[in-house]
Amino acid sequence: MSMRSRRFRHATVPLLALLAATAVAIPLLVHGGGGAAGGGGDADSNGADRFGVTSASPAVDDRNTGGPAERPGPAEPTRRPLAAAGRAVPATPAGKLRFGLGPGLDSAHTSPLAPDLDFLSTWYNGPNDLSFLRKWKADLIPEVYQSGHGIHLIVWLDGTGEVGTVQTAHGPACGREYPLSSGFLDDARELASIFSGPANGPALYVTLFTEFQTYPCHPNAWATTPDTTNYYLTLQDQYLAALDIFHSGAPNARVSLGWGGWQSRWDDPATGAGRSLITHFADVLRVSDFESFQAMGADSNAADVRDMTRALGQYGPVMLAHFKSESQATWEADMHALLAGDAVRQLSQDGLFALSFMDAANIASPAALSLARGAVQSHGVHSTL
Description:
Elements: E1 6-7, E2 18-19, E3 26-31, E4 77-82, E5 98-101, H1 105-109, E6 119-124, H2 130-138, H3 140-146, E7 150-155, E8 163-168, E9 171-176, H4 182-195, E10 204-208, H5 226-249, E11 253-260, E12 267-268, E13 273-274, H6 275-279, H7 282-287, E14 291-295, H8 302-313, E15 318-323, H9 328-339, H10 343-350, E16 352-357, H11 366-379
Parallel strand pairs: 5-6, 5-16, 6-7, 7-10, 10-11, 11-14, 14-15, 15-16
Antiparallel strand pairs: 1-2, 3-4, 8-9, 12-13
C-alpha cells in the first residue's frame, strides 16, 4: 500500500488540508424526493429506512450512465421522527483516553508504541485502496482484532474523482462527485464487510468524510452559494446512508462525521461559516455514534483541540481522529499542553474519549517516542475482550 502524509496550512480564513503522496428519538430534517438509501437498514411500510430516508435511489447514480443522473429539484422539507439507533462507544474512565496510531494497520501494528495502544488507525482514500484492503480482510484485520486492538477507519475523499456540478435530490451541487455517488455507497458496503468484527470484540471506529468541509467547491460555509448548501445536504444524506451500511455490515462499528479542526477558529452566522457550520449538522451529529475531528496545524493545535472538543462534545463522545504537526516543536508543545497535568481530565470532561496519532513521523526520535509512550501509559486505557 502507499502511505499517506498530510499537510495543513492556515491563512486568514482556514484553508483545506492537502494530501501529499504516499439515542433518543429526535426530529431529523429530510427533504422529500430522494435522499440516499442506506444498505440493509430497517425500513418502514413506506420504504423509508430508520433515518426517514426513502430507499429509492442514491443521491447521484452514476454507475450505468457514464455520468451523474438527472434528478428532480428539491421538494418541500418534511420532518420525521428518528428512532434511537446509536451504538455506544466502549466505556472510558473519566480522565482517561483511548489512544491510536496510523497511518496504516501494517505500520501501526509493528510500532513500538503498539502494545500500549487501544486501537490502530488506517485510511481509505478512494476505490484504488480496495485492492490491498481486500487482502487484509483474510489475515491482518483478524490479527489486529485478535490482539485486542480496535481498528479506526478514516475515510478521506477530497482527493477522489472529479470536481464539478452534479444534479441531486436537493438541486445542483458543486464539489467532489465521488462522495455523493452510488459508487461510494457500494464501496462503503465492501468496507463494512472488510473491517467487520464480532459485536462483542474490539470496536471498529469509522471517521467518515474527514475534513468534509473542503469537499464542496466553496469550503467551510453552509450558504456561500445555493450549490454549496445542496452539496452539504446531499452529503448529509450520504453520511446517514453510510452510517446505516456500517451498522448493518459490521456489528462492531461505531460511526462519526470527520471535521477539520480549524472550523472553530472563526464564526459567520450569516453564511453559516466557522462555528455556525456545526449547527447546520446538529441532527446528523446527534444520530452519530461519536463525533470526530482532526488537528494538524503547523501552528499550535491545542486551542483547536479544546474548542472542537467542547463544540462537538454537546452531541456525543469525541475523538481526535488524526493528530500531528509538520513542526516537531509544535507537536511537542501540543503534547505538553494537551496531555500533561490536569489537561486530560478537562478534555475528558468536555467529551474527548480518544486520540489517534496521525502517523509515526512525530515519534521518530527516542525522546519523542518516550514522550508519546509516557502520555499513553499515564492516560490511556486499552480495550478488554
